[in-house]
């Protein structure tokens, strides 16, 4: 992905920073490091409701994504879609179940869930879904309840000015909510048709989600890469964990 490549390319130019004072620091050599790290991640998530200029990180409450684009071609769904001016709410209201960094294996694992995640986007869609014609545009909203997810990353270490920085190598994001409710406000089409499309989506959300998630979770993966980049391209391992 272009975003992933561009983030890696800027690592060498990033300026070193210190851990913001409102975040908890854990020493990787302390006996209870894993427990400390989990507590720090849980508290740190609540602090991401404002931007951090030193980390070049925007607020996650809400998270703004200008555009999400996907062309989906699966047995159930064949559509092209553009989602623009997207806002995701409640990202900082996350229950982190596990957060591990293995400095020997150079891996990071994060497992968590959002009790309720909300999104708002303007959409354009064209194609077929469950053999039904779907075409139109307008405002949309979605509610994802009990969204359980994981983020995994392998990394390399990059030395700069006698400090050690993290360079992502491979990343993955996976997850699924327990329920989804979507409301697509189609403009310029028959109201009854719009309601029928919404009903198709909401009645079959789980099957549709499994069919198309690979296309859209890639955008979620890139978002977390950007967040991790904000931290570890500018915050050295020594500053963060020593």
UniProtKB/TrEMBL annotation:
Signal peptide: 1-16
Keywords: Signal
InterPro entries named in the record: Haemolymph_juvenile_hormone-bd, To_sf
Pfam families listed in its UniProt record: JHBP
Superkingdom field: Eukaryota
GO cellular component, one term: extracellular space
Protein name per the record: Uncharacterized protein
Organism: Zophobas morio
């Amino acid at each position: 992905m272009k975003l992933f490549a561009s983030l890696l390319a800027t690592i060498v130019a990033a300026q070193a920073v210190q851990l913001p004072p409102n975040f908890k620091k854990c020493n990787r050599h302390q006996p209870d490091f894993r427990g400390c790290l989990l507590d720090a991640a849980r508290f740190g998530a609540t602090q991401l409701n404002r931007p951090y200029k030193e980390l070049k990180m925007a607020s996650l409450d809400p998270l703004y994504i200008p555009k999400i684009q996907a062309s989906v071609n699966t047995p159930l769904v064949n559509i092209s879609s553009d989602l623009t001016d997207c806002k995701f709410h409640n990202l900082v209201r996350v229950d982190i179940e596990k957060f591990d960094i293995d400095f020997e294996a150079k891996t990071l694992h994060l497992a968590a869930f959002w009790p309720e995640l909300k999104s708002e986007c303007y959409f354009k869609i064209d194609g077929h879904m469950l053999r039904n014609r779907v075409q139109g545009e307008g405002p949309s909203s979605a509610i994802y309840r009990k969204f359980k997810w994981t983020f995994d990353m392998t990394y390399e270490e990059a030395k700069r000015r006698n400090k050690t920085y993290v360079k992502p190598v491979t990343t993955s994001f996976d997850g699924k909510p327990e329920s989804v409710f979507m409301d697509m406000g189609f403009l310029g089409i028959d109201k009854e048709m719009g309601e029928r499309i919404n009903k198709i989506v909401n009645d079959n959300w789980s099957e549709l989600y499994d069919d198309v998630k690979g296309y859209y979770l890639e955008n979620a993966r890139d978002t977390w890469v950007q967040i991790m980049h904000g931290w570890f391209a500018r915050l050295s391992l020594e500053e963060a964990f020593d």
